[in-house]
Amino acid sequence: MTSDKLKQYIGLFGGMLGALYLALKASGIEVPFLMPDKLDAWQNFATSIVPFVIAIYGVYKNTYIIHSHSKAQEEYLKENNLK
To answer: Which residue ranges does UniProt annotate as crossing the membrane (predicted)?
Structure first.
């Protein structure tokens, strides 16, 4: 499975769950584990972790000491006065 297909599946299931949740709320059916006070905790967690993950990924992608091909790229940049 490619990453593109994985993203499509995540979007598909996320959309279906969102539509199901809205349909249940419109019908007056309350799901106890989807109460706003419980969802707020997960929302706070997500808004905290997403920037952290993005920052860690940026540091990882801009580090030249992790992989051998990254070291070769760093040498190339130094040879051509680009770093």
So the answer is: 9-29, 41-60
